[in-house]
Amino acid sequence: MKKNSDFYTEKAREWLLERGVSIEDIADLVYFLQKNYYSNLTKELCIEHIEKVLKKREVQNAIMTGIQLDLLCEQGKLEEPLQGIVERDEGLYGVDEIIALSIVNVYGSIGFTNYGYIDKLKPGVLQKLNDKNQGCHTFLDDIVGAIAAAASSRLAHSAENTE
């Protein structure tokens, strides 16, 4: 039998993919965040750091919780006024960002800066996730941005340790 952490990691990855987000999509975001700081940065290195982030239980829990809330919203199963708030991804709601910050917090304060930057610009897959015609991704867009920010932070910390 697999260890629980392996099961949770696989389930989180599976649910991300079912919602249209691949590890490569997240690697593109990490690359976007770090390309100006590392001349030898590769997508493979970005993926390596994403994989480490995905092994953290806090990250797995955030992914699974956020995706389930988005799915419940798509099915109209949240009570009002929460249903409308999540559907509209209201700016003052903030709970989606709080879940994302639990991921960012795993690798220190540099993650907050990375997360804020990528959340504002919404490059790559984040732009697709923010298209209201593509389903409810109120939580997922922030979670994906947070995974990229955490992986970028992990990368920055590992580079610091090698110098």
From TrEMBL:
Entry-linked CDD domains: PgpA
Pfam families reported for this sequence: PgpA
InterPro entries: Put_PGPase, YutG/PgpA
Start and end residues of each YutG/PgpA domain: 26-157
Protein name: Phosphatidylglycerophosphatase A
Provenance organism: Evansella tamaricis
Organism placement in taxonomy: Bacteria, Bacillati, Bacillota, Bacilli, Bacillales
